[in-house]
Write a structure and sequence with these properties.
about 30% strand; binds copper (II) ion; rod-shaped; five-stranded mixed beta sheet; about 20% helix; alpha+beta; four-stranded mixed beta sheet
Length: about 260
């Protein structure tokens, strides 16, 4: 075969070919299976030398030995190579999609239409179990023995402290508590803030006011620490208007108080 009737299209010259010279029958078979084309043959000192070539764009292994070895064990076909690439590409696409969806959902604002629970800004983990009902009036509801109230202390802003009936409804000042004279009440205090606080019912809106009915948890010198909880049960005194406060220094002035109304 001569260079003038090369079979591949687009081949301009012999420089576009790789060439191999082999002498063994084994190499000849291997090159033949690998798509090499024999174009010449000479005999030197009794040894037959076979000249093979192949278009460079064919993408053949560099060494004839490699070709032989691969041909013997079954050289990887083009289709298998492509399939590997398809699988790798598909895996990458799937990974990108999953990561994208997860990242997208993580940035989604909580929408009211989705039933999935959204994280709340509750600063204390103990708050959800004992949250009072969402009734707008802070008036406690009576049970058979004692009326139970949960009161949460915290800091709505850096300069305003307060109380609330749930960890995420803390206001400054806190909600008004309404009792009936002689009622037995158990207050469970939760420190949902970032600093120590306490709680007590007093006769004036001052951190030095007198505590009434032994209705207090902690004190100014021994407050409830952050995340802490304390309970007190007391009997409400006579009808009138009182206050509850945090006795820690200066906290009343920052809004840590609320009114207590006792009905006859
Ligand atoms: Cu306080």
């Amino acid at each position: 075969m001569s260079a003038e009737n090369l079979p591949e299209k687009g081949i301009q010259s012999e420089q576009d070919y790789e060439e191999r010279v082999v002498t063994s029958a084994e190499d000849i078979r291997a090159l033949g299976r690998a798509g090499w084309e024999k174009y010449d043959q000479i005999t030197v000192d009794g040894v037959q030398m076979h000249f093979y070539r192949r278009p460079k764009q064919f993408g053949v292994p560099k060494k004839a030995e490699e070709t032989t070895k691969k041909a013997e064990v079954g050289s990887p076909k083009k289709g298998e190579s492509n399939r590997s690439w398809y699988i790798a590409a598909a895996i990458m696409v799937i990974v990108i999609l999953v990561v994208g969806v997860v990242a997208y959902e993580a940035t989604l604002p909580s929408t009211s239409s989705t039933p999935t629970p959204t994280p709340t800004m509750t600063p204390t983990p103990a708050s959800t179990a004992s949250m009072p009902s969402t009734s707008t009036t802070p008036t406690p509801t009576s049970t058979s023995s004692a009326t139970r109230i949960d009161i949460y202390a915290g800091e709505p802003t850096s300069s305003t402290y307060g109380f609330g009936l749930s960890a995420n409804s803390i206001t400054s000042p806190g909600p008004t508590l309404t009792f009936t004279a002689g009622q037995t009440v158990t207050v469970t205090f939760h420190n949902a803030g970032t600093m120590d606080h306490n709680w007590g019912i007093v006769d004036a809106k001052s951190s030095t006011a007198n505590v009434l009915w032994n209705a207090k948890v902690g004190s100014s010198s021994n407050p409830i620490s952050v995340g802490g909880t304390a309970s007190v049960t007391f009997t409400v005194g006579s009808a009138g208007t009182y206050y509850y406060i945090c006795q820690v220094d200066a906290h009343v002035a920052l809004g840590m108080w609320g009114a207590v109304t006792v009905n006859p």
